[in-house]
Amino acid sequence: MTAVQLSGAGRRRGWRFRGRAWREAVSFYGFIAPWLIGFVLLSVVPLVFGLGISLTNYDGLNLDSVRFLGLQNYARALHDAEALFGISRTAVFTALYVPLALTFALFLAGLLNQDVRGRGAFRTLFYLPYVIPIGAAAWVWRLVADGNYGLLNALLHLLRPGTAVQWLANYATQVLVVFVVWTSVGGAMVILLAGLQGIPKELREAALIDGATPLRTFFAITVPLLTPVLFFQLVMNLIGALQTMVAPMLLIPQPMGFNVLPPQDNRLYMTFVYFEIFTKARFGYGTALLWILFLLVLALTLVVFATSRFWVHYEVE
Amino acid sequence: MGVGGLGALGVGLAACAQPTPTAAPQAEPTKASAATQVPPTAKPAAGGTVVFMHQRNEWSEDQEKQFMAANPAIKVEFIQFDATRFMAMNAAGNPPDLFRLQGPEVPDYLARKILKNLQPFFDISTVLKADDLAPSNNYYKWDGKTIGKGDLYGMCKDWSPDFTLFANKKAFAEANVPVPADDKPLTYQEIAQLASKLTKKEGDRTLRWGFGYHGDWIDRTMMNMLAETGKSLFADDFSRLAISDNPEAVKVARYWFDLAKANVVANPLNPSPQWAGDDFTKGLLGVVQYGYWFSAMAESDVTKDNVVMLPAPTWAGVRRDPTMTATGMAMTAKAKNPEAAWVLFEWYNGGQPAIDRAKSGWGVPALKSQYKLMPAETPFQKQCQKVLQGELQYASDALQFNPFIKADVVITAWNKYLEQALRGKMTFEEMLKSVEKETNDAIKEGISRLG
Description:
- The complex is a heterodimer.
- Chain A has helices at 2-53, 72-78, 81-112, 119-131, 134-145, 151-159, 167-170, 172-197, 201-209, 214-242, 246-250, 269-278, 283-311.
- By secondary structure, chain A is mostly helical.
- In chain B, helix 16 (409-422) runs antiparallel to helix 17 (428-450).
- Chains A and B meet through helix 7 of A and helix 4, strand 10, helix 16 and helix 17 of B.
């Protein structure tokens, strides 16, 4: 009898528990449903569709002439000199951009973490390039860097009349790196600033009392505690750099169009993909190239994640 | 459609603007023509929504309101033309009813069965009559085998003999060079000499280029130059780009390469950030090569009273001055509301918008009956009309476009390898081989896809 009663009470508790769990599950899925539906419709479905297209000769206009090619597009990419050149230029760009952007963002965040007058104004000022539409920013840069009528050469002209350095044509990658750092550093700076402000003052003060120099404090206290934020920034910058397409297109020194490519040094992988798809109507091949990029990004991200246990220090471990 | 059919389609472009084009051999009519044909009706019952993909600067909101006021049963859903969006809409099976296109794109769209046969509509139209259509409309004719013959699949909104020149008299005066006569064509060789004399520099800085042209269309210019000698950039069946084994084509390509290398035109190593029209109106060009349409904007505050229009130059002494764009409008094969779309098509191409365009001077009207509306009030407009009337007699021959590739493929390859050749990373001959290889790969794919 007792056993039966106990069993009944247990069942009631079980029902109550299951009822609460059910309600929690419904709430959970209800709240994430908008994102989940958007993710499935706008990311998963296009990804699968893209994977399907990458196995065909689809030309973007009609489906009548589509043929299944299997992995031919992928095999072709591995032997395509232009694709490989695009990868090499993207590697150069990434190798220059990522360290520069991280260092500069950390430097600015460090500066703006000081207790100085007008700190708010400086923070706004340094953040501003990040919120300027990239098209407008590029337009201004083109005006500044134009070979014959640019502001930069006009200043140089004062020192040496007749100067016409073709910045956008002959120093294309350097200008691109500086431009992308300039437009992106504001976002990284804000996140690093938040990270800096999350580091307890007491730790730095204790180190200083123990006789550590500010430089030693920075590398022994600040940087290790900031590594989770730096790690996040590193991953995001790497992914962004490998996918760079818009900036080199906007910095083309000639009028833009479907048939004007960036200068050779700025023909990054994604610009190559763009012209394959939209100039040559190679949608199938283009999506295969995009899938290859996705795999490269994934592999690189996993490598960075694998190294993180050696240099990223979490407060709770 | 077979490869032969498409080749014939391209071959037919040669006869694009001729009244009696030669039918191409070994070509079979395709089913596309019949499949996209609209049964003629005495009076189409028009109503509903028309999805219209065009450019807002060529279809104003006022015109849209006027049209809808005159046709209250029709609602126009305007979409700004965007090539990517157009592709996406087609791929989704939901294309616009009417859209903007250029003559060189017609063979490609026909091959892909995207255009609707509008002949039944033209047959009963009292506004757009066959004998009133300017020759440039032949770019939109196709009989299933040959461009330039057969049914109409669209029409141009306006056009120009596109190889004429505009000279900045101020630049000539500064360089102490006499302005060429406007009743005798220059040769391309003379233009090269002028380009050199008119280019103005200060140290490394270019203050004025001697000559300018539309970079997007340089392949079309080469095609027109070669046509003077009876040659083409492509093999007869359009199966390949044939420059390096064609001495005349090599000479033409060398001409443009040498101009760039001499730095007397904007080029990849000394580029202009704006199109040649802007350069000209800002006084940064001595001579620019554009069609009659450019006369509407050639005189700016900087160039006013200092511009003169000149006839199209010749390469081998044969006068040719066809249009190279024939920008117009077509209806998609999958248009949801063809009857209502035709009402809009007819109004745009024969109604008030066409009259307004003719009066604006932004091109030669697509209807011969509207030629008289072109402006001829100012001395410059009168001078342009004089040159234009002389050029119209050489404007009926058309260019031959390759139906297997998109119109941008050749020029993109040219732009790409020109930079490398100018930097000395490859020779001129290697540059030509590279352009050929890249284009021929695309042609091969096109043949395999459409064949």
